[in-house]
C-alpha cells in the first residue's frame, strides 16, 4: 500500500512550493543586504528617482483637454491661508515621535494613565487648537 505508511512523503503541489522557494530566496537576499546600510539607502534613492522620472514623463506625455490646475498665484482664490507650513508640521511631528521614543527607555516617564481622562484631555486640546487655527 503505497499511500499508507510508505517510505515516500506526499508530494506537495508545485505552486505552493514555488511560492515558498521564492519567499526563501527573497528573505535570503534581504538578510544579505542588512549590514550594507549605505547601499540600501542609495538603492532607495535610485528607486525614488526612477519614480519621479516616471511621474514627470507621464505628466509631460499626458495631453489634457479639460481644466488645468492653476500655475500662478494670481490664478487661484485663497480664502484660507495656513498658519502652519507643512514642513514645520512634519518636523514637529517627527521630533515628537523621536522624543516619545526616547522617553520609553526611562521608567521615570512610565506613568499610569486612566484612558478616558486622557481621551477627554486630547479632545479639549484638539478643540482649543482648531478653534484658534480656524479663527479669522
From TrEMBL:
The keyword Glycoprotein does not apply. The chain crosses the membrane at residues 38-56, 89-107, 113-130. Its main location: membrane. It is a multi-pass membrane protein. The keyword Transmembrane applies. InterPro entries: Rer1. Keywords: Membrane, Transmembrane, Transmembrane helix. GO terms for biological process: protein retention in ER lumen; retrograde vesicle-mediated transport, Golgi to endoplasmic reticulum. One of its GO terms (cellular component) is Golgi membrane. It is found in: Membrane. Belongs to the RER1 family. This is Protein RER1. It comes from Gossypium tomentosum (Hawaiian cotton).
Amino acid at each position: 500500500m503505497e499511500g499508507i505508511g510508505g517510505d515516500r512523503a506526499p508530494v506537495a503541489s508545485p505552486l505552493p512550493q514555488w511560492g515558498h522557494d521564492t519567499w526563501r530566496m527573497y528573505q535570503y537576499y534581504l538578510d544579505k543586504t542588512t549590514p550594507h546600510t549605505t547601499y540600501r539607502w542609495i538603492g532607495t534613492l535610485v528607486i525614488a528617482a526612477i519614480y519621479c522620472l516616471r511621474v514627470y514623463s507621464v505628466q509631460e506625455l499626458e495631453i489634457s483637454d479639460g481644466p488645468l490646475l492653476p500655475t500662478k498665484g494670481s490664478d487661484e482664490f485663497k480664502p484660507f491661508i495656513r498658519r502652519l507650513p507643512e514642513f514645520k508640521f512634519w518636523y514637529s511631528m517627527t521630533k515628537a515621535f523621536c522624543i516619545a521614543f526616547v522617553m520609553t527607555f526611562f521608567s521615570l516617564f512610565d506613568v499610569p494613565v486612566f484612558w478616558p481622562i486622557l481621551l477627554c484631555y486630547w479632545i479639549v486640546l484638539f478643540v482649543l487648537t482648531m478653534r484658534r487655527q480656524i479663527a479669522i
